[in-house]
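One example given next:
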Amino acid sequence: MKIINRTIVVSRLTQIALIFVLAGIISSIAHRNIKTVNIRHFVMGSDMEGYYQYLPYFFLHDWDNFERLPYAKPYEEGKTLNIYTCGVAIMQAPFFLAAQVTALFFQVDTQNGYSNIHFSFVFIAALFYATLGFVFVYKTLKKIFPEMESLVTAALLFFATNLYYYTIFSPGMSHVYSFALISMFIYYVPDFYKNPGFASTLRMILPLAMATLIRPTNLIAGLYFVFYGISGWKDSKERIKLLATQWKYILMMLMVGVFVFVPQMAYWYKVTGTLFVYSYQSEGFPHILSPHITTVLFGARNGWYIYTPLMFMASLSLIYLALKRQLNGVVILLIMAIIVYLNGSWWVPTFSAAVGYRALIEFLPFMAIPLAFFIHKVYYSHHKLLKGSATILLIFFVVFNILFSYKYSTWLWWDSPWDWNNMLHIFTFPESASFLLLYGI
């Protein structure tokens, strides 16, 4: 189903101008951050250090040291086990090597991979993958919606959600990398069904496999491939027949998935002597039979709809699409329902210290479709009041998100008592508002 019926033509010059405006805003904020705060704060500590430490220990240290990584949990015989997989490190590897070359060229001490140059390149990596995700979301939407609506939707996914924070303020976290990979996966799924082959299979499965390596729960996104374009039982039977005839490409998908996991299995084997390890150990899904769904969606600490209200509008649109069986609404709703259920079953369903519900960032590309549908319906209506109200609301979501990103304090959030009074106190923005006025945002 395509909705391009009154296409607004956006010239290449306008598109380039919009990109430069966005890049200018991001660069201004990034410069402010790097100049006023120790850059190590942005890419090290907590999960970020766990993801990153594979790189210096692979490229600059003796590999025997992998058995004793510093940011890891104690294991047997004096060893340590990194609970975080190496997917983020693989995505950062080209930028790590670029940092090494830059440091050597300018004769700067590399500090064994922990210099400010290396940290700066982690920031560049996050910006690169955020841009990549933005481009693929836009390209996916442009197949269905007018160009301007596609651009606006893609921009809202960045500026009006916590993807903004986890790109600008916490570039070492896994979310922006997963976001980019799942955006690519969604874009390439239709290509496989149009022209099954080696190239179309590889383009589709490699991003999904990498996203799964980064966060195993990202495998749920694979349901989009299975149920893409299906709107009834008849379609389901045809899909089974089609996939049966393409068994060699299904086998190829499994082989690519195993290949992508080889580095991780090699690390697990070196430390534990086994190829498969549940590295989170005691951390798991104790609430699987009684998930905290309301905590995930409406909780005072990090509730998705509370801290990213844009997604409430997108969710209403998604339910409508699912009921109408349009734009793959059913499978997208299924994917979102499963990931919300699993997150609500996690041992810490709030994901503790976080800006909004961070464990749903990687699934934002799916929500782009219902969000774009909502924007399309509003702005192609004849109700000026509706258009004006929606515009004001969307601008508010952007300003709210940016202000909150600057208000956030890791130490305040981390395992501290939390209720609605705390949250309402945080939503006062005198300092943040002055910052935005200073930068003209």
Remarks:
- Residues 68 and 79 are 5 Å apart (CA to CA).
- Residues 6-10, 432-441 have pLDDT under 50 and may be disordered.
